[in-house]
Amino acid sequence: ATRLERALGLLTELHGPDSPRLGNALNSLGSAYLRSGRYAEAEALLVRATTMAEAAGGPSHPDVVTPLNNLALSHERQGRYADAIAALRRARAILSENSGPDHPNVGLIQQNIAGMLRLSGDLVRARSEAEGALKIIEAKLGPEHPLVAGVLVVRGEVLHDSGELAAARDRKSTRLNSSHRLTS
């Protein structure tokens, strides 16, 4: 983090504290703080990075997505699941608007939403989000793509937490037919 802190300082001196050019450095330093457990400091930087991305490109610009996703991680690490879910839903909306609702990155954000919903205890919605993510990622990348594994892990955790232990262990049961679907 110290190199990133130094880089941010140099960029701030060069471009000024409100320059949109600081956004990536703020996001990178915020991510480093997340990895080192400095969640409140990370959150402050990620809020600032999000604000700068919005100022530079507008509130629906794709550059807003990455700091929002990282901000959601900061919220999650602080046990603030509702805030994390809100940030991820906004990121998904921006991605859907810019790349289409069936883009694989939309599926990845949806997978993250499923994980946050699971942590918050909302297993019904978590399952629905995980299934939606699985549909998007499999449809665009194929059922054997490595990104499918992440969704299957989240789906398995939701099934496990729901008491469906056999289904959680069985990859085939990750694709339940409509008669077994939970609705939100």
Give unreliable regions as ranges. Answer: 173-184
What is the oligomer described by this structure? single chain
Count of helices? Answer: 9
**Radius of gyration, taken over Cα atoms and rounded to an integer in Å:** 18 Å
Question: How many angstroms separate the termini?
Answer: 41 Å
Mean pLDDT: 88
Overall shape: elongated
Q: Would you tell me the structural class of the helices and strands?
A: mainly alpha
For the sheet with most strands, the description reads: none
For the secondary structure, the number of strands is 0
Percentage of β-strand residues: under 5%
Question: Helix amount, in percent?
Answer: over 70%
> Secondary-structure element order, as H and E?
HHHHHHHHH
